[in-house]
Every structure is written in structure tokens, then in C-alpha cells.
Amino acid sequence: MSNLNKLEHALIVITHPDTQSLSHQIAQHISHDLTRKGVLVEIADLYKEGFQAAMKLSDIEAYRGRQALDADVQFEQARFDRADVVYFIFPVYWWSVPAFLKGWFERVFSQDWAYKYDEQGNLLGTLKNIPVKLIGTATGTQSGYDRHGYTQAIHKQIVEGIFAYCGIDGDCSKFCVST
Question: At what angle do helices 71-82 and 99-108 cross, to 10 degrees?
Fold first, then answer.
């Protein structure tokens, strides 16, 4: 969906503990811009909301089909399901997303919701194919990230390794560095 005027609901997932950070400023700017255009914006501030990013035994038991997903995971999945576009805004730590966001992916993008396997063992990504925007705040420049392969590494890890795996077209995602 390239035309933002057709959007009805946006989800902004922000992963930064400091509410005065550049990441939060960017999230607020995007939120105000989308709201002005008539888009309903939901902000998932993972630190403020106290999301438990570490995998728990209950997550493993749900993966094994022995119990239902925890309520917090189901809540995050419902947020994602409502969205027509999702923004992930985060500081770049060690050339990737912070562990907090990685933990969100690990817990929320669960089997049978984000992906499954058919009878022949073939992977089927089951998430709806919506635009996903990665906005990483970091020192340096976009050209520096490109030159050293960091942009490509994040693209490979997150865009292909998570989003495409779960059915979201990797071409609809873009990682950009905001310094």
C-alpha cells in the first residue's frame, strides 16, 4: 500500500527507554503527521508499557501447542492485526535492533500466527502483507551504514529473516538511519 491516504490505522512500535530521545521525537512527529491525515494511530511504547521481552517457559509451551499464548502476546498480535502500516522506531545497538525489540519479535511473531508449516513441511508466512517501516536512530550516516554493510545486515536479519519469513514482502520494508 503505497498511498498513505488509504490508511486507516497505523501502529508505531517504539523501543527506547528515554522519552526525550530522538526515537520518541520521531515517533511523535510520525504520529502527528498521520493523525493530521485522518489515520488512527496506536503507539506501542514497549518500555513505558512494561512489555516482557524475554522468552518465558509459557512461550515455549505455547509454541509446543500445550497452552495458549500469554495475554500480553495476544494483545500485541491484535495491535498488529489492526494496523495498515507498522513503524518500528528504535536506537541501533551493536548494528541491530535492541534486544528489547528482538524479544518482542520472538514472542509476538509466533508460530501459527505469523507463520506455519503445511503438510509437506513447507513454510507459509501468514501475516498480512502491509508496509513495515524500520527507523533506526544512530550515530553516523546512511552512506556509512551502506558502505560498511550495516544496512544490508539489518535488511537481511530483520526484513528478510523476520518479516519475509512471516509473509510480509521484504520489498515493502525500508531501513533508514536517522542521526
Answer: 90
User: For the residues 2-14, what does the mean pLDDT come to?
Assistant: 80
For strand 123-125 and strand 115-117, is the pairing parallel, antiparallel, or unpaired? antiparallel
CA–CA dist 152, 103 (Å, integer)? 21
CATH number for position 56:
3.40.50.360
Give pLDDT tens digits for 134-162.
998 888 888 888 899 888 888 899 999 99
Kindly state the cell numbers that stand for 135. 527507523
- What is the number of structural domains in the chain? 1
Range of the domain at 41: 4-178
Task: State the distance between the two ends of the chain, measured CA to CA, in whole angstroms.
Answer: 27
Closest CA to 153 of 137, 175, 121, 169: 175
To the nearest whole number, what is the mean pLDDT of the chain?
A: 90
